UniProtKB/TrEMBL annotation:
GO terms for biological process: thiamine biosynthetic process. GO terms for molecular function: ATP binding; hydroxymethylpyrimidine kinase activity; metal ion binding; phosphomethylpyrimidine kinase activity; pyridoxal kinase activity. Residues 13-259 form the Pyridoxamine kinase/Phosphomethylpyrimidine kinase domain. Gene3D superfamilies: 3.40.1190.20. The keyword Metal-binding applies. GO terms for cellular component: cytosol. This is pyridoxal kinase.
C-alpha cells in the first residue's frame, strides 16, 4: 500500500500542540504520510510564564531537509511559521520545485497568547513569494488584514473585501478564519474561490484550549487535497476536524491548552453548515 505524501515547511512547537507537531498529527489522522522541513524551533520558558523563544535553524539545514523530502515526490505541501524573508523565499522555491498544485499557505504571523508579531516585514515577502503559488491560503482575521492591507476585518463584509484582495494577489482560494475572534454566535470562516463567497459555520466552542487550531486546520486541508478532495470539500472536512479538536482541547499545564488533534475519528465532530453570502 502506498500513502499520499504531505510535506510541511514550518516551525517546531516544542510543546507539541501547534507547528510541525500539529501538522504531523493531522497528516497522520488523515491517512497521509507526513514529512517535515523545519524552519525554526520554538521553546517555552516555564520559569518565565511560558514566554516563547524562537530559534532559527541555519538555512543550509532547511535546504537539505527540503531536498530530502522533495526527492521522494510529494503530493501536497503546507507552510507554517517561516520567520524571515530568506526562509519565505526558500519555501517558495521548494513549492515551485515540488511540481505540486496542492499548496496550503498558513501565513502564521502571531502565536495565540503572544502579543508580539513575528517580523512584520515578512508580510510583503509572503505576498510576493507565496500567495501566487497558494491553492489555499488560511489567514486568521489579523493575518488577513495584514495581507490585504485593509486592517483587521471586523464584519463579514470586511472579511469579503479582504478575501477578494488576497485572491487578487494570487491565492486561488482564500479561507479567512473568523474563529473565536469574530463577535458572532457561531464560529464563522469565510471561503472565497474567486467566484463565490461561502460562510462555513460550526457551533462556537466555549474553550480556551485552542493552541494549534490554526495549524491543525491548514494541515488537514493539505492532507485532504493530497487525498484527492476538491478544495471546498477539503476545507469543510478540515473545519469539522478542527472543531472536534477544539471541543476536546485539554490543559497541558497551567499555561497552555492544546487541541486534541485526533478527536474527530474517536468522538465525532460538530456539523459544518455552508451558506452563500
Ligand atoms: N471557539 C471555537 N469554536 C469552534 N471553532 C473554532 C473556535 N476557535 C477557532 N475555531 C476554528 O478553528 C480554526 C482555526 O482558527 P483560529 O484558531 O482562529 O486560527 P489561528 O490559530 O490561526 O488564529 C478555524 O476554522 C476556526 O473557525
Ligand atoms: C512553531 C509554531 N507554528 C505555528 C504556531 C501558530 O499556532 P496556531 O495553530 O495556534 O495558530 C505556533 C504557536 O505557538 C508555533 O509555535
Ligand atoms: Mg495560526
Amino acid at each position: 500500500m502506498t500513502l499520499k505524501k504531505t510535506l510541511t515547511i514550518a516551525g517546531s512547537d516544542t510543546s507539541g500542540g501547534a507547528g510541525i507537531q500539529a501538522d504531523l498529527k493531522a497528516f497522520q489522522e488523515h491517512g497521509t504520510y507526513g514529512m517535515t522541513a523545519l524552519t525554526v524551533v520554538v521553546t517555552m520558558d516555564p520559569d518565565n510564564s511560558w514566554s516563547h523563544g524562537v530559534y532559527a535553524l541555519p538555512t543550509e539545514v532547511l535546504q537539505q531537509q527540503i531536498k530530502t523530502a522533495l526527492s521522494t515526490g510529494v503530493d501536497a505541501v503546507k507552510t507554517g511559521m517561516l520567520a524571515s524573508e530568506e526562509i519565505i523565499k526558500i519555501a517558495s522555491d521548494a513549492i515551485q520545485q515540488s511540481g505540486t498544485d496542492k499548496v496550503v499557505i498558513d501565513p502564521v504571523m502571531v502565536c495565540k497568547g503572544e502579543d508580539e508579531v513575528l517580523n512584520p516585514g515578512n508580510t510583503t515577502a509572503m505576498i510576493e513569494y507565496l500567495l501566487p503559488y497558494a491553492t489555499v491560503v488560511t489567514p486568521n482575521l489579523f493575518e488577513a488584514g495584514q495581507l490585504a492591507g485593509t486592517g483587521t476585518p471586523k464584519t463579514i463584509d470586511e472579511m469579503k473585501a479582504a478575501a477578494a484582495k488576497i485572491h487578487e494577489l494570487g491565492a486561488k482560494n482564500v479561507v479567512i478564519k473568523g474563529g473565536k475572534a469574530l463577535p458572532t454566535e457561531k464560529a464563522v470562516d469565510l471561503f472565497y474561490n474567486g467566484s463565490e463567497f461561502k460562510l462555513l459555520e460550526t457551533e462556537k466552542i466555549a474553550s480556551t484550549y485552542n493552541h494549534g487550531a490554526g495549524c491543525t486546520f491548514a494541515a488537514s486541508v493539505c492532507a485532504n487535497l493530497a487525498n484527492g478532495l476538491s478544495v471546498e470539500e477539503a476545507v469543510i472536512e478540515a473545519k469539522e476536524f478542527v472543531a472536534a479538536a477544539i471541543q476536546h482541547g485539554w490543559a497541558l499545564n497551567e499555561y497552555v491548552g492544546p487541541v486534541m488533534h485526533g478527536a474527530k475519528p474517536r468522538f465525532g465532530a460538530p456539523k459544518v453548515t455552508v451558506t452563500n453570502v
